[in-house]
Specification:
The complex is a heterodimer of chains A (465) and B (109). Chain A is of the alpha/beta class and 465 residues long. Chain A has 15 helices and 18 strands. In chain B, the strands form two sheets. In chain B, strands 3-4-5-6 form a four-stranded antiparallel beta sheet, with helices on one face. A two-stranded antiparallel sheet of chain B has the order 1-2. Classes of the chains: A alpha/beta (465), B alpha+beta (109).
Chain lengths: 465, 109
């Protein structure tokens, strides 16, 4: 059931979102949400106290033909000025706004979005959540994110369908064996629970796997039992609903066209297609378009944008309840609750903003997966799409102050942003509220490139791209 | 799938025959340069949504490096030219100006 909305019509779901209406399926998903025992503090709700979703609400609405569901978030006209403006209503931008309100009581906030909410990489990823990174800074923020995901449905009163089904990264060369053993030891020090497992254990967890592939046999794997997946759209929708409930304005179809600075070098507002919006602080959280926004704001970033693509198969009966990543042959796969095999592909080898991807990457990815999972050779592929990922030199994100005063940037998540959403929003909100990066964000400053203080995950994490 | 023409051997082929080499005309800042210049040389990259100039290598063909002018939003290839140049040739720039009036890439416009 994970992707109900998507099958029922990706674009109709998207259109209804743009019109600020959550597709009907969200209401149905709610019956699996555990109601929180303690009612949340509604004192921060300034404008629209939202109705809680609960088993009781389902029963109540069932009794009156579901006429009482209200819109999940408001669609207001922009005000002249906000204390904080966040550019980008994807997962990271919405999470930033949410934790600004929840942790710091800052609710005079606008989140502006040029397309529709969650329509960028938040709606285009393979929904994998894990925190088995090598470097301390990465492990800290991804583990924070993973642990927040565990309680997020209750926290947001919105079922994000977090499924801690386990993630295995296959070791298929001697180098990978050494690398993953090293990561498992590092994770033990960092307090992240992972283990290095034998091929027999891999086979036990994933019966459909072929351990003796023609090119690369499975020699072992790095297993994080508490990693998993979540319903990607629901993460954005849940945060959006909670932000709107705190009185924040989510303004969709509003593109930023310029960044204004005052004489003191501080940001004073943004020009948008819906007019000027003044702000006390500006947060840029636009992933693939970070370079475009930075150019408007007048600074450069160590980032290049490329399309990364993914695809899903036709839905089949449950056959694999673990996420498997095979980085040497380059393919990763999981099965959605609805039965589709969700497959991550390769990134294009040149800068682009096309959200499409290329056929030869599909061929390459599917070829690798057929080696590892021979049964997928007879599957039909249903859909393929691309997202624009912002890649930094060391493949780690940037959560940083910028050369402009009161302007902060959160970008560079590259191919691994979805798993980081709650932690990234937490760290970004902390930095924006206090003006200086806190412990989670400290290592991810822009100055690390000048200082050579890299968080080098491009080789360390063994991520395939 | 891009179609590129290698200016060295004259072959027009699909992108799988080539390998992207990143931003073109990057000037090296050596060990004696300022930290800021060295950072720019190593990490800061043009990342335009639109006209971009970049390096490519004809890896499974003649093996030579060359430059290409391409639109990163539409994937239109405006043309390719020799790697033995410090700036894009004027006739190619004129063609790009006609198609994308007002484009700017570093100080090229």
């Amino acid at each position: 059931m994970a992707r109900v909305c998507e099958t029922e019509g990706r674009w109709s779901a998207a259109e209804s979102l743009a019109q600020n209406r959550v597709p009907d399926c969200t209401a149905r998903l709610e019956n699996t949400a555990a109601p929180t025992p303690v009612p949340p503090d509604f004192s921060v709700l300034s404008e629209m106290p939202m109705k809680r979703y609960s088993a009781f609400a389902i029963a109540r609405e069932a009794a009156r033909h579901h006429t009482g569901w209200e819109r999940a978030w408001r669609s207001p006209k922009p005000k002249d000025r906000y204390d904080v403006v966040i550019v980008g209503a994807g997962g990271h931008g919405l999470a930033t706004a949410y934790y600004l309100g929840k942790n710091f009581g800052i609710t005079n906030v606008a989140i502006i979005e040029k397309g529709w909410l969650g329509g960028g990489n938040t709606g285009r990823n393979t929904t994998i959540i894990r925190s088995n990174y090598l470097q301390d800074d990465s492990a800290a923020i991804y583990e924070k994110a993973r642990s927040l995901y565990e309680g997020l449905s209750q926290d947001l009163n919105y079922n994000i369908m977090f499924s801690p089904r386990g993630v295995i990264m296959l070791a298929q060369t001697e180098h990978e064996v050494r690398g993953y053993k090293r990561t498992a030891h590092a994770n033990a020090h960092q307090g992240v629970t992972t283990e290095y497992i034998t091929p027999e254990r891999v086979k036990e967890l994933v019966p459909i796997i072929n351990l003796h592939g023609p090119r690369y046999p499975v020699l072992g794997g790095l297993y994080q039992a508490r990693g998993g997946t979540a319903r990607h759209d629901a993460v954005a929708w849940g945060y959006a609903r909670a932000c709107s409930g705190m009185g924040m304005d989510i303004i969709q179809q509003c593109e930023v066209t310029g960044v204004e600075t005052g004489a003191d070098g501080n940001v004073s507002g943004v020009q948008t297609t819906k007019g000027r919006i003044g702000c006390g602080k500006l947060g840029i959280v636009v992933a693939g378009h970070s370079g475009v926004l930075a150019q408007m704001a007048g600074f450069r970033l160590p980032i290049e944008s490329v399309a990364l693509q993914a695809l899903v198969s036709e839905p089949i009966k449950p056959c694999m309840d673990v996420v498997v990543m095979a980085n040497t042959v380059h393919g990763y796969m999981s099965q959605s609750d609805k039965g589709e095999m969700v497959i991550g592909g390769g990134a294009d080898g040149y800068n682009n903003y096309t959200q499409r991807g290329s056929f030869h990457h599909v061929e390459e990815t599917v070829r690798s997966l057929v080696e590892t999972f021979p049964m997928v050779s007879r599957l039909k592929m249903l859909r393929q799409w691309g997202g624009i990922v912002d890649m930094t030199g060391d493949r780690s994100p940037i959560i940083s102050r910028t050369p402009l005063g009161n302007c902060f940037i959160n970008c560079g998540w590259g191919t691994g942003g979805f798993k980081a959403i709650p932690g990234s929003g937490w760290a970004m909100a902390d930095m924006m509220a206090k003006g200086t990066p806190g412990p989670l964000a400290k290592g991810f400053g822009l100055d690390r490139f000048r200082e050579g203080r890299f968080i080098d995950e491009s080789v360390a994490a063994g991520v395939a791209h | 799938m891009l179609l590129l023409e290698c200016p060295c051997c004259g072959v027009t082929a699909e992108e799988t025959e080539f390998h992207g080499g990143g931003e073109a005309h990057v000037k090296r800042a050596g060990p004696s340069s300022e930290d800021a210049a060295f950072e720019t040389y190593l990490f800061h990259r043009e990342n335009p949504k639109g006209v971009h100039f970049e390096r490519w290598r004809h890896v499974t063909g003649c093996g030579k490096w060359f430059m290409a002018a391409r639109d990163t939003a539409t994937l239109e290839v405006f043309g390719t030219y020799s790697a033995q140049t410090l700036a894009p040739p004027e006739d190619l720039l004129k063609q790009i100006r006609d198609k994308r009036p007002g484009f700017k890439w570093r100080d090229v416009q």
